[in-house]
Task: inverse folding
């Protein structure tokens, strides 16, 4: 197992450093141009990989505040939960909305029925 680890660990380190180097923009590399870093990583797998990880890429400090915040730490999100209606209020509002839609539908249906009756009367008297 230890023998396999001696081959797998440097290989994994090489692959990680190589892909990280390729994905890094040119302006974020330090000390050497990006092409030279790729050559160093491929020619000297262990030393080049460790060198790239340690010094080759500019690391940005993580912001203490700002950026993404977990929902339970976000005061805006917590306030929005407090402003939400209770399930009973939501059901009442949905019932009112459903009633108004039903009334509108019935009114439209009555209007169409009256138009049909007028047309039938007009056709009957005109014929």
Result:
């Amino acid at each position: 197992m230890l023998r396999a680890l001696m081959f797998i660990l440097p290989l994994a380190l090489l692959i990680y450093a190589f892909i990280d180097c390729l994905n890094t923009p040119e302006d974020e590399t330090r000390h050497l141009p990006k092409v030279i870093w790729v050559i160093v990583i491929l020619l000297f797998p262990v030393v080049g990989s460790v060198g790239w990880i340690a010094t080759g890429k500019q690391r940005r400090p993580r912001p203490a505040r700002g950026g993404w915040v977990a929902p339970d730490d976000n005061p805006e999100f917590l306030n929005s939960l407090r402003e939400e209606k209770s399930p009973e209020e939501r059901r009442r509002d949905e019932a009112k909305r459903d009633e108004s839609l039903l009334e509108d539908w019935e009114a439209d249906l009555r209007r169409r029925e009256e138009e049909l009756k007028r047309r039938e009367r007009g056709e009957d008297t005109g014929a």
Q: What stands out?
A: The chain has a mean pLDDT of 84. The first helix runs from residue 2 to 23.
